[in-house]
C-alpha cells in the first residue's frame, strides 16, 4: 500500500484491531498523562488539539464510524475523518462507503452533506457543530433515564438486579464522562437509601465498569468504615480478589494481558449464603465472651494496582 493514497499498512492494522475490539466488546482507550489508559470519548475525536495516534488514521476512523453502536462516537469519528477524505480520492471513496454502511441515520446524513458540498469549510463547520450538540443531547437523554431508573429503585418499583443492569447499560450507551460516572457510582455506594443488595451487585458486576471506575469502587469499599454493611462488602471484595488470585496462579502459563478481565460470575443469593457461612465459622472460632466482629483485612495500594491495572 502506498502512503500517497492516504492509507498505510499500520492504518490497516489499527483498523483491524479496533474491529476486533468491537467484536469482543472491549472499550476503545487512549493513552493519557503518565501512560494511563482512558476511555476514548466523542470529545477526543472532535478536538483538533489532540493527537490521537492510531485514531487519527482514516481507516481506523472509518471502522469507528461504521461499527460503533452509539451515534455520538460514530458521528465524531466521521467528523474527524472528513479532512482526510477531502485530501485523498481513495479516502473520499471510503468515506462514501462509510455513509452507506453506518447504522446511524445522522452519520449518513452528515457524510452526504460533506460530500455533496465538496468538504467546504462551511459544511465542515455545520457537521462539527451538529456532532458536538448531538453528544450533549444524547448525554442529557441518558442522564434523565438514569435518574428515572434510580427513582424507580428507591420507590420500590425496580428490582435491584434490573436496576444495576440498566445503570451499567445507560452509563455505557450514554458515553458518560468518567468523572461523572465515578461520582454516580460512589454516591450509590455511600447512600443509606440504596439497598445493600444493589451495592453487592455492583461488586458482582465489577468487570463491566471502565478501569477508572473499577479502581474507584474498590478504593471506596476498602476505605469505608467497618460497619456491618461494609464488612459484608469487604468480605465479598476479598473473596473476589482471592478467587482471582487463585485463578491467576492456576493459569500462570497464560500470558494474556486481558485474562484478569473475566472474573467468575457469582449469583447474589449464593454470595449471601457464603457470607452467612463464613460468619458462622468465624463465630465458632471466637471466644464466647467476645461480641465484636474482627475487621476484614483491606487492600493496600499494591493489591489494588496489581489487580486492576
How would you explain this protein's 3D organization?
With 309 residues, the protein is mostly helical. It is 66% helix and 2% strand. It has a two-stranded antiparallel sheet with strand order 1-2. A hairpin with a 5-residue loop joins strand 1 and strand 2 (37-39). The two termini are 37 Å apart.
Give a short summary of the structure:
66% of the residues lie in helices and 2% in strands. With 309 residues, it is an all-alpha fold.
Distance between the amino and carboxyl termini: 37 Å
Helical fraction equals: 55-70%
Going by helix content, strand content and strand pairing, the class is: mainly alpha
Mean pLDDT, to the nearest integer, reads: 79
Q: How many structural domains are formed by the residues? A: 2
Task: Tell me the overall shape.
Answer: elongated
Number of helices: 14
Encode the helix/strand succession as letters.
HEEHHHHHHHHHHHHH
Keywords:
309 residues, mainly alpha, two-stranded antiparallel sheet
Topology:
Elements: H1 9-24, E1 29-31, E2 37-39, H2 42-46, H3 58-67, H4 71-87, H5 89-101, H6 105-116, H7 121-154, H8 160-173, H9 178-190, H10 196-204, H11 211-223, H12 228-250, H13 268-285, H14 301-308
Antiparallel strand pairs: 1-2
Helix pairs in contact: 1-3, 3-4, 3-5, 4-5, 4-6, 4-7, 5-6, 7-8, 8-10, 9-11, 10-12
